[in-house]
């Protein structure tokens, strides 16, 4: 049987009566709400999420020089560093580039039902979308499988406006 | 003429799952004192400059890299703070000496990972706040996705990855510094809980605490200080795009390019022939074969069979992760890269005790920044 070891001080009994900092413990458990600010979407993010919100469509940005279409879109090319100005609509028909079956949640607890997570790439596109895959069992999912995004009815401009990807 | 650069002093604390007996400052003080003793230098009198490498929050506090001057003996002295892997700190020190700006530089890294209660949240916080993080998923899914693509592209198997775990944990039994040495069978690895399939729980390296300090010196100073300098012959570093969407998933391009740079500087044309052993990143089991291939220690898709045939065993033709790697030693956050350099130095000095490799002259150490990034560094060291 593999040996299990304690890896966090918080899991131990007090160390021979050593003092423990309750304040430090709390801080590490939940960063104080005041720690957070608001992350700006930026020009390309605004474009991407507004198109999702208003029209349930995926937007890319094209680099003419490299002949690459970026999803998510950007205002610069990460290869040649040219500025990008050409937006294009991406057909909602992708392919699973790679996936995993997740059995634990963010807190490390085991999930009752595993979740399928994938990087979905689109034809002729550089990049893709990382999201959940549903309407298929974990046993049947495959790399190379064709999938499409299922959008929510009521959208607010978030990656969660895509409910999940499903096989087509 | 640019001077040659050597590692002339090493100091470290044993790597442990938890270290509730000491604060991180006391841990670094111990590692630093041993390194200065080993090099025969005094931090205030002899060391020209210091480098410290820590990331934010990894040890339970922000702007952590500003916390080391006192416990390193570096108060009122020049210090570079580097928010990244420790091999980058060693590279920084190398450049300061190579350029002639400094003669003796000390580099510090440590892990106090046991301070952190839920590291998942910390890593999740490093994923993209608008494209990835809202999915509210455990960020280790990234390793599962990478493993899946790597296995598909190369034909490497889960069984071969399990052999890596078994080998490295067994190697760690011979390393008194390692926290997770144990006799474990590949079957036990394959039978461990599914985490991010195909990644199982025992495919993932557990966290450990520890401090490492190294003293680097110019050729002139090195020869005056020690009769066993270990020379830095090659070094390289590289980062892919940080976005999950555009980075490579099946191949470790960052390691390939960092390796090519290091080989060019060291004048190495045939890595497998000209290097005697390697310590490569094995944060997850599949990373060892993936990195070996990226570093051209074998052809792509051949690392799995190389492991199966026993070539990477301690007694094998190309010993890999004799120290136990991260799977056997424990994942040391930014000190993970330096732990690999430390092993290479100990082996080349002939001070590796029960795991000493016979007649080794040139060794390679490689680091990966860990999820969610595709970034890493390589260092080649030699006895002569
Ligand atoms: Zn371009």
Mean pLDDT of chain A: 88
Count of DSSP-assigned helices of chain A: 2
Looking at this structure, what is the CATH superfamily of chain A?
A: Nucleic acid-binding proteins
- Give the strand content of chain B: 15-25%
Largest sheet of chain A: 5 strands, antiparallel
Strand content of chain A: 25-35%
Unreliable spans of chain B: none
Q: Tell the overall outline of chain B.
A: globular
CATH superfamily of the domain at 5-117 and 208-225 in chain B: Thiolase/Chalcone synthase
CATH architecture group name of chain A: Beta Barrel
CATH topology of chain A: OB fold (Dihydrolipoamide Acetyltransferase, E2P)
CATH architectural arrangement of the domain at 5-117 and 208-225 in chain B: 3-Layer(aba) Sandwich
Radius of gyration of chain A: 21 Å
Number of domains of chain A: 1
> What coarse outline of chain A follows from CA principal-axis ratios?
globular
What is the makeup of the main sheet of chain B? 9 strands, mixed
Oligomer: heterodimer
Structural account:
- The complex is a heterodimer of chains A (168) and B (384).
- Chain A is mostly beta strands and 168 residues long.
- Chain A has a single domain (42-167), classed as Nucleic acid-binding proteins (OB fold (Dihydrolipoamide Acetyltransferase, E2P), Beta Barrel).
- Helices cover 13% and strands 35% of the residues of chain A.
- Chain A has two helices and nine strands.
- Chain A has helices at 22-29, 42-55; strands at residues 58-63, 68-71, 86-90, 94-104, 110-122, 126-127, 129-133, 146-151, 162-167.
- In chain A, the strands form two sheets. Chain A has a five-stranded antiparallel beta sheet, with no helix packed on it. In chain A, strands 3-1-2-6 form a four-stranded mixed beta sheet, covered by helices on one side.
- Chain B has helices at 24-39, 69-72, 86-98, 119-124, 141-154, 158-172, 186-191, 219-225, 253-266, 271-274, 287-294, 303-308, 325-329, 336-349, and strands at residues 5-12, 49-53, 79-82, 104-112, 194-197, 199-200, 209-218, 230-239, 277-279, 362-368, 375-382.
- Chain B has a domain at 5-117 and 208-225: Thiolase/Chalcone synthase (Peroxisomal Thiolase, Chain A, domain 1, 3-Layer(aba) Sandwich), CATH 3.40.47.10.
- Chain B has a nine-stranded mixed beta sheet. Chain B has a two-stranded antiparallel sheet with strand order 5-6.
- Chain B is an alpha/beta fold and 384 residues long.
- Chains A and B meet through α1, β4, β5, β6 and β7 of A and α4, α5 and β5 of B.
- β4 (94-104) of chain A pairs antiparallel with β5 (194-197) of chain B, so a sheet runs across the interface.
- Bound molecules: zinc ion (ZN).
């Amino acid at each position: 049987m593999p040996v299990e070891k304690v890896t966090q001080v918080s899991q131990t009994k007090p160390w021979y009566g050593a003092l423990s900092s309750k304040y430090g413990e709390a801080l590490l458990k939940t960063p104080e709400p005041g720690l957070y600010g608001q992350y700006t979407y930026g020009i390309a993010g605004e474009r991407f999420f507004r198109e999702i919100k208003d029209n349930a469509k995926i937007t890319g940005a094209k680099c003419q020089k490299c002949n690459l279409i970026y999803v998510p879109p950007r205002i610069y090319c990460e290869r040649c560093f040219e500025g990008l100005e050409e937006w294009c609509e991406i057909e909602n028909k992708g392919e699973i580039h790679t996936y995993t079956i997740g059995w634990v949640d963010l807190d490390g607890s085991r999930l009752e039902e595993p979740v399928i997570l994938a990087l979905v790439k689109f034809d002729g596109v550089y990049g893709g979308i990382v999201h959940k895959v549903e309407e298929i069992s974990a046993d049947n999912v495959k790399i190379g499988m064709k999938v499409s995004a299922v959008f929510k009815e009521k959208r607010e401009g978030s990656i969660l406006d895509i409910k999940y990807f499903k096989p087509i | 003429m640019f001077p040659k650069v050597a590692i002339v002093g090493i100091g470290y604390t044993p790597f442990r799952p938890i270290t509730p007996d000491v604060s991180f400052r006391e841990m670094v003080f111990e590692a630093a004192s041993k390194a200065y003793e080993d090099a025969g230098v005094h931090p205030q009198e002899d060391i020209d400059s210091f480098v410290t490498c820590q990331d934010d929050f990894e040890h339970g506090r922000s702007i952590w890299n500003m916390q080391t001057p006192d416990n390193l003996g570096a108060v009122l002295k020049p210090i570079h703070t580097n928010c990244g892997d420790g091999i980058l700190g060693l590279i920084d020190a190398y450049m300061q000496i190579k350029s002639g700006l400094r003669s003796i530089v000390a580099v510090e890294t440590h892990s106090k990972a046991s301070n952190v209660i839920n590291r998942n949240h910390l890593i999740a916080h490093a994923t993209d706040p608008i494209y990835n993080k809202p999915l509210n998923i455990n960020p280790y899914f990234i390793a599962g996705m990478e493993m899946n693509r790597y296995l598909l592209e190369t034909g490497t198997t889960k069984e071969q990855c399990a052999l890596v775990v078994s080998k490295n944990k067994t190697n760690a039994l011979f390393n008194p510094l390692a926290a997770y040495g144990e006799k474990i069978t590949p079957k036990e690895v394959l039978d461990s809980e599914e985490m991010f399939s195909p990644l199982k729980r025992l495919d993932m390296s557990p966290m450990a605490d520890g401090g490492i300090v190294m003293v680097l010196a110019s050729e002139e100073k090195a020869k005056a200080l020690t009769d066993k300098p270990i020379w830095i012959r090659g070094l390289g570093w590289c980062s892919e795009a940080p976005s999950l969407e555009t980075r490579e998933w099946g191949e470790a391009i960052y390691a390939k390019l960092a390796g090519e740079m290091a080989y060019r500087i060291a004048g190495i044309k045939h890595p497998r022939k000209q290097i005697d052993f390697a310590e490569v990143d094995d944060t997850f089991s599949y990373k060892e074969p993936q990195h070996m291939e990226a570093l051209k220690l074998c052809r792509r898709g051949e690392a799995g069979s190389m492991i199966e045939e026993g070539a990477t065993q301690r007694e094998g033709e190309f010993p890999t992760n004799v120290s136990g790697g991260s799977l056997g030693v424990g994942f040391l956050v930014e000190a993970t890269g330096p732990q690999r350099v430390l092993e290479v130095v100990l082996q080349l000095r002939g001070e590796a005790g029960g795991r000493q490799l016979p007649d080794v002259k040139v060794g390679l150490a490689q680091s990966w920044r860990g999820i969610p990034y595709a970034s890493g560094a390589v260092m080649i060291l030699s006895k002569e």
